[in-house]
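Hey L., structure's done. Input below.
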Amino acid sequence: MAKQIIHTDQAPQAIGTYSQAVRVGDTVYLSGQIPLVPQSMELIDGDMEAQIRLVFDNLQAVARAAGGDLADVVKLTIFLTDLTHFPLVNQVMGDYFSQPYPARAAVGVASLPKGVPVEMDAVMVLSA
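Output:
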């Protein structure tokens, strides 16, 4: 199957050697998103909740560019530099997802790009 590269100006541009997302068949692999404002490519000025929301907004923009929506996400991976923020991620995630929820992992990490406290990537399956 051919790979289709997904790109949108509604999400931050790649800050390295990767694509925002890659579609193969009905499966879309969304690269990690951090709380960067797409228009300025600057980190959002705000508390942890604002950062989490922007990460979900960025994932949503890429999902839509691929022809889907966050409801099509089957696997979500959350990277946090401080796992005490996990309950807040759960709370905010409820505003973006409804049941049935995707499979998910939360991983505590020492650091993330640009010193951010949160990053998320996802796998999405589109209906034929």
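The radius of gyration is 14 Å. Strands lie at 3-6, 21-24, 27-33, 36-37, 42-43, 73-80, 103-108, 118-125.

-- N.
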